Every structure is written in C-alpha cells, then in structure tokens.
C-alpha cells in the first residue's frame, strides 16, 4: 500500500510480515488439529509454536523464493530455520498452498472490514448529529437542475445518513461473505486431510469453513466484497 494514502492500522494488515504471521498461525493450528487426531506426533505440533514470537524475515523469505520459485515453500523453509528441520517435518502435511493463501487473504479482508465498519459507525454518528442540529436550517431545494421548493439541511443530512446506513449493512454482509476458510487439500477433496482440521483452523482464525471449494475459495465472494467497497466509495 502507498503509505501517504493509507492509515497505519490498515497498512499493517497488508504488510508482508502480517501476511506471513497469519500463514504461520494457520499452519500451527492445523498441526494442533492433526496431532489431536493422531495424524502427527504431538511433540512436533508443540514445536511449531516455538516460533510464536518469532519475527519472520521478509527479505529472507524472498531470497529463498528466488531459488524455490514458490512462495509457500519459501515460507515453510524459513519456518524450519526457526524451529528446526526435524520439528517442522509435519508442517503443511495434507495441505495445498491455497489452503494457506486463500484462508489468510480472507482473514485480512475481515480485519480490514472491521476497521471500515468502525469508520462507518463514526460517519453515521456525525451525520445523525448534523441532521438534528440542522433540522430547521433552510436551504433551497433543486429539481431538474434548477432551484425548487425550500427544504432543510437536516433532511439532507438525514438522507446521507440513510444511504450510509445501507452502506454499513452491505459491508456487514460482504464481511460475512468473505469470512470463510478452506483447509481441504489438493483440489479440495479432503483426500489427504481430515475435514476436522479445517473446522479447527477456521474456528481459531475467526472464520467459517467454506462449504464447497475446489482447493481455492470461490472468487464470487471476493467479487461481492470489492463491489460493495465500490458502492460505498461512490456514496
């Protein structure tokens, strides 16, 4: 993001370091679920959490990716540098890259939506205040591009309030729409991973399991989310 056009709290969500932190949490929670199911040794799952306070080196991950030509493999290689190759041997077992990428993206979108919803609450409060403050403030109305009957600024602010209230409702629905995760393995068949792993990871990351995926979360969810942002931005 371009810093001068972005707020620190929003920029932080989309910072590469935050992305890798979310990737790590997804992998760690998946290991916990796999260990609970007896698929991997519990000591290996516990070892993954040794990196819970680690600072993932974005430059180092980029350096590894230049060799592996694969972003998730680069990250997993860097994670192994933190916790040890033997301890990391079961990380990502049964998963596919999109399990991490798509689930992490939706975590970021949900967090961004929460910031925007707070913003809309403040906008609504300001518009409501102005609507009552200018309840009797006259202004000229307009019709067909020319002066018409008198109206009030209070009514104008009330109209703005109603529009932004609809905007908030739309964003709440859009947030719900993208609040899904998928840990279903290659092509989304769960052939190599238990669906209970997905349930656990989604619960821990504040998401719902994606009902049906083909290893990628359906993109109509994202289309609705960004279309909603476009409508709000034009309000």
Task: Provide an overview of this structure.
The chain is mainly alpha-helical and 235 residues long. The protein has two domains: 93 residues, Fumarase/aspartase (N-terminal domain) (Fumarase C, Chain B, domain 1), CATH 1.10.275.10; 140 residues, Fumarase C, Chain A, domain 2, CATH 1.20.200. The protein is 62% helix and 7% strand. The protein has nine helices and four strands. It has a two-stranded antiparallel ribbon. The longest helix has 37 residues.
DSSP, total strands? 4
Domain unit count: 2
Note the overall shape.
Answer: elongated
Question: How many H/I helices?
Answer: 9
In short:
The chain is mostly helical. It has helices spanning about 10-15, 15-35, 40-50, 60-70, 70-85, 95-135, 155-180, 195-205, 220-235, and strands at about 140-145, 145-150, 180, 210.
Layout of helices and strands:
Blueprint: H1 8-13, H2 16-36, H3 42-48, H4 58-68, H5 71-83, H6 97-133, E1 138-143, E2 146-152, H7 153-178, E3 180-181, H8 195-205, E4 208-209, H9 220-233
Parallel strand pairs: 3-4
Antiparallel strand pairs: 1-2
From the structure above, extract its key features.
235 residues, mainly alpha, Fumarase C, Chain B, domain 1, Fumarase C, Chain A, domain 2, 2 domains, two-stranded antiparallel ribbon, two-stranded parallel sheet, 4 strands, elongated
